[in-house]
Amino acid sequence: MSPFGRKKGKTLCMIILINIFICVLVGILWTFGHNKDDPKRVRIPSQRFWRPHIMSKSFWNKEQERLDVINNPLINSELFSNSLIALPDWLNDTGPLDLCEKDFRVPRQIIDYNTLPKRFQDFLLHMRCRTYPMLINQPHICDKTPFLLLVVKSLIPHFDRRQAIRQTWGQAGTLANRPVRTVFLLGSASSEDNFPNLQGMLDHEAKLHQDLLQWDYRDTFFNLTLKEVLFLQWFTKHCPQARYVLKGDDDVFVNTFRIIDYLKGLSEGKAKDLFIGDVIINAGPHRDKKLKYFVPESVFVGQYPPYAGGGGYMFSGNLAIRLCNISQQVVLYPIDDVYTGMCLKKLGLVPEKHGGFKTFGIEEKYRDSPCVYRDLMLVHSVTPQEMLKIWSWVVHPHISCN
């Protein structure tokens, strides 16, 4: 072929390629122009992808946002650790270096701080503190691996409740061929809360029964979350081998036989993430100052995650350890059962509702029916005298229930 012919052929090929490119481009543009409702179509954002962070005005939410960023693996990458990118001003922590000192930022950042209940103020001032001296410990109580660890939240003056539990559903030893252990969780009684000094009696009780755990912090309603966190830390160190944990108040009745029967029937997969109780959903903070669970907007905004009522719930020992670890990434909240729900949400878990947990009590017409308690797992609330009576109904086989 002559040089002129080769040159002409190359030119023709180039024209064909250009025409193909134009056709493809027109087709793409036509597709984008005529398929606006196609959900799979790629759209170019009309706004900036990165937006400036808008801080919440509520104190707890701000603290949690800060923790979320600090625990983000991208923030903790080598890029940030080498200070190549400066962190935004809102992440700078101006609180005390010692987390157990009073947080002087609180009265300035919570606009209605001075109108809050004194115990609520105390909680907020020490919200970052998670380490308190242990006054009474039982480091060897789990030397023989418990199948079930019964954990009871109590107050120092409640000697009668603890004794009723020891004589009934909280009996330590072997029950239904499974090892069971019981511990009572306590803080310190403060004269500010009008408690008498009963520490000497408590020390005697601890030596006698060897089932008390006590920390040196102010034992109030708003510090129940702290009691939860301190227990999880103790569990991880002293009792991580326990298969299951049932945690409840000292005014609940627990059908321990029913609990063990249920647990024995669980599959391994179900047991790992077990968390059951009387689950509350679609709840939020109460704004009425007269209510026990009052939380102002200056402290928290938003909905609560699903959570099990704090009167009593049950979970696996494996999950207890994971809750302990994840709790470091969740700011303490003044309502303990809500806080546990927050920790579960961080783990990607949702508590399971079980009809055997009656944390809001049962109908009055059924309260004196022995057979009702045979099928239930936990009932709130009962007196020590009722506890003894109900237990006798559960353990005596001569009562026939059809």
List its salient traits.
12 strands; alpha/beta; nine-stranded mixed sheet; manganese; 2 domains; Glyco_trans_31; Spore Coat Polysaccharide Biosynthesis Protein SpsA, Chain A
For the CA atoms, what is the radius of gyration?
30 Å
Count every beta strand, where a strand is a DSSP E run of 2 or more residues. 12
State the order of secondary-structure elements, H for helix, E for strand: HHHHHEEHEEHEHEEHHEEHHEEHEH
Q: Please give the oligomerization state of what you see.
A: single chain
Portion of residues in helices?
25-40%
The unreliable regions are none
Distance between the termini: 105 Å
Structural class: alpha/beta
Describe this structure in words.
The chain contains 14 helices and twelve strands. The chain folds into two domains: 59-112, no CATH class; 134-395, Spore Coat Polysaccharide Biosynthesis Protein SpsA, Chain A. The longest helix has 32 residues, at 3-34. The protein is an alpha/beta fold. The model has no long low-confidence stretch (mean pLDDT 88). It is globular. The strands form two sheets. Strands 1, 2, 3, 4, 5, 6, 8, 9 and 10 form a nine-stranded mixed sheet that branches. Strands 7-12-11 form a three-stranded mixed sheet, with helices on one face. Helix 7 (199-209) links the parallel strand 4 (178-188) and strand 5. It has helices at residues 3-34, 59-70, 78-81, 106-109, 118-125, 159-167, 199-209, 224-238, 256-264, 268-272, 317-326, 336-346, 370-375, 384-395; strands spanning 134-136, 148-153, 173-175, 178-188, 212-218, 244-249, 252-254, 275-280, 307-316, 352-353, 357-358, 378-380. Helix 8 packs across helix 11 and helix 8 (224-238) packs across helix 12. This is Hexosyltransferase. One of its GO terms (biological process) is poly-N-acetyllactosamine biosynthetic process. The chain crosses the membrane at residues 12-33. InterPro entries: Glyco_trans_31.
